[in-house]
Amino acid sequence: MLNRVVILLAGAAVLLAAAPAPAHHAFSSEFDVEKPLRLHGVVTVMEWVNPHSWIHIDVKGDGGTVNWMVEGGSPNQLLRLGFTKNALLPGMEIVVTGYQAKDGTNKAVGRDLTFADGRHLFLSESAAGTPK
Amino acid sequence: MIGRCLVSMGLVAAVGAAPTTPRTPDGRPDLQGFWTNASITPLERPRELGAKEFYTEEEAAEYRKKALVPLSTAERGGTEAHYEFTQFGLDRSQAQIAFSLRTSMIVGPEGRVPSLTPEAQQRNAERAARNKGHEFDGPENRTIQERCIVWGNEGPPMLPPGYNSFLQIVQTKDYVMILQEMIHDARIIPVDGSPHAPAGVRRWLGDSRGRWEGDTLVVDTTNFTDQTNFRGSRENLHVVERFTRVDEQTIRYEFTVDDPGTWTKPWSAELPLVKDKGPIYEYACHEANYGFANNLRGARAKEKADEAKTEKKDPK
Across the interface, which of A3, A50, A111 has its CB nearest the CB of B84? Predict the structure, then answer.
């Protein structure tokens, strides 16, 4: 039995203003950097939910079709970038590169999301035009 | 497309509101509307800048140019399995920014948070030792941020949350309401001369009471919980915030924090709140916090894997 201890508000994640935008939660415990993946599938559902959006896709493989859940960014910010409920509809074909969940289920974090023709899903014009 | 809010905050004189300040029917400065506190100014001044409190306009322009270039997580030194910030509009190059000439939000020649008291250092060390290795034991072990209770920068004092950096102020004669998009709480602040709640009443965001000092709204907050942790502070944290509408587009937001059990002296900071067209959106954090359960499941999966490894190595 694990010893349960109440952590006194480790909200210590008081973030320096100049630091990169923070994630809502600890990614390193949710997703496995040792399990990178690339999924090519068809959107079944786009969940516009807080604190993170989730995209469900059907991926065809040798063993049949598997439904994956892919975690994305804050829906509030996506809306501000001009994306709406109609931006990503069931049936659209997308490619996801990211990392699989540590619990081994068919969930992943979407590090980079593109349409089948290579266009980025959510990247705004200003970011897309900036060399990296 | 998000437009950049290029507000150049000059050295605004430390006096009340400007003559053209919008006012409410009862004659107070009108603080109402949507505002952003997104910032590229660090809370603490980089040490190499010494006592330099302000950039020149030219230096500030150069700093902005460097700070607003979109960089991937890896380029920013991030090591976690994460999506690219630029993919989802979470980097500052795509945000509206409330610019300032300040080199740090913390004012004064030091520009940094004062030293922790020996008591606070011991408290922090004990807490860290107690929590080590138990971070994922159960839901209560996770941060209150992850648990959707209070966002780390929600305050008071209110600091930029990193993204979705917007707030709304609604004002009546006797109350001021401040709603921060991150994370969801509305601060309902009486401005009616009433005293603080009794000492036994403790709140995550404390008990705030407002008053007008000339054209500045002063908000005094006490009665935090013993789990409140603003940079190591505890339940005796005392926050005084000052809101002054310096022009049509800007509120000067200042705060002073004190907790004798935590810092060797009080400290103060200042940042602008810049007008935004709004609206702010609901951040219903518990709506679908799948990541929280995924985190715990990930930890259980790791424990099983570790147990299997141990059994294989040392069969009984």
Answer: A111
Given CB atoms, is A40 within the 8 Å cutoff of chain B?
no
Q: What total number of domains does chain A contain?
A: 1
Strands A107-115 vs A64-71: parallel, antiparallel or unpaired? parallel
Cβ(B152)–Cβ(B158) under 8 Å? no
Using only C-alpha atoms, what is the Rg of chain A?
A: 17
Residue B201 lies in a domain: yes
Is ipTM over 0.90?
Answer: no
pLDDT tens across B50-75, in order? 999 999 999 999 998 888 776 655 55
Across the interface, whether the CB atoms of A21 and B162 are under 8 A apart is answered yes
CB contact (8 A) between residue A21 and residue B92: yes
Q: Tell me the CA distances in angstroms from B121 to B256, B262, B283, one per residue in order.
A: 21, 8, 35
- Contact: A17, B80; criterion CB under 8 Å: no
pLDDT tens-digit map of B162-176: 888 999 999 999 999
Q: What is the pLDDT of residues B199-213, one digit of tens each?
A: 999 999 999 999 999
What pLDDT does residue B17 have? 59
How many domains is chain B built from?
A: 1
Residue B55 lies in a domain: yes
Q: What is the mean pLDDT of each run of 10 residues along chain B (316 residues)?
A: 37 52 93 94 95 96 82 56 62 72 96 96 92 91 89 91 91 96 93 97 96 97 92 94 95 97 97 94 89 91 89 72
Rounded to the nearest angstrom, the minimum Cα separation between B1 and chain A is 6
Could you tell me the residue range of the domain that residue A57 belongs to? 27-120
Domain that holds residue B106: 33-131+193-277
Asked if the Cβ–Cβ distance from A51 to B289 is below 8 Å, we say yes
Residue B206 forms part of a structural domain = yes
Strands (E), B63-215: 166-171, 175-180, 186-190, 207-213
- Confirm or reject contact between A129 and chain B (CB < 8 A): no
Are A10 and B131 within 8 A, CB to CB?
yes
Cα separation, B275 vs B269, whole angstroms: 20
